[in-house]
Amino acid sequence: DAGVIQSPRHEVTEMGQEVTLRCKPISGHDYLFWYRQTMMRGLELLIYFNNNVPIDDSGMPEDRFSAKMPNASFSTLKIQPSEPRDSAVYFCASRKGTRGNQPQHFGDGTRLSIL
Amino acid sequence: AQSVTQPDIHITVSEGASLELRCNYSYGATPYLFWYVQSPGQGLQLLLKYFSGDTLVQGIKGFEAEFKRSQSSFNLRKPSVHWSDAAEYFCAVGAIGADGLTFGKGTHLIIQP
What we know:
The complex is a heterodimer.
Chain A: E1 5-7, E2 10-13, E3 19-24, E4 31-38, E5 42-50, E6 53-56, E7 65-71, E8 74-79, E9 88-95, E10 105-106, E11 110-114
Parallel strand pairs in A: 2-11
Antiparallel strand pairs in A: 1-3, 3-8, 4-5, 4-9, 5-6, 7-8, 9-10, 9-11
Chain B: E1 3-5, E2 10-14, E3 19-21, E4 24-26, E5 32-38, E6 44-50, E7 56-58, E8 64-68, E9 73-78, E10 87-94, E11 101-103, E12 107-112
Parallel strand pairs in B: 2-12
Antiparallel strand pairs in B: 1-4, 3-9, 5-6, 5-10, 7-8, 8-9, 10-11, 10-12
């Protein structure tokens, strides 16, 4: 089975530009999570969806960040305008079922560098 | 809110030696506990999980972990490490009624030949 697929794997762009990260969850999974990983703060949950509906976006750092899930097989995380402090690795994860003891399956991440 | 502490930022172990990575959590009830491994440039891969029952859980790649409620710990062990085990290891906790996971800062494992 295909795992969680993220694109692009690497993104380098200049400050002020719009950045869009993409994620395709595992088929049949009804939860989707976006995380950010930095050296200073580790892995932080940004937002998650259940059945395409955003449930908790309290981890989204600023209004510059937005996420959507238009259907069960696709989600985007957008940063507009981007800033150097947004540089990090962004992970998408998906999970099947409502029980919190079910594991999350992670994609390989998008390494974002804002110059 | 729950929290996770991984006290060791780096650990160096000789190939063939035993390994124990520490994880302490803070949560008012019985948590859901996970260990993930991250190889360079890769995402996180689940090693094992605990949510109830036998406090010693077996995972992939020869890893095991033991849940100790009295110590609020969930330490990861392997009897004999291989060079391919060099990676970043993350402990994570999930709470009843919550969907997100809280991760520790990770432990970087270095294997000496």
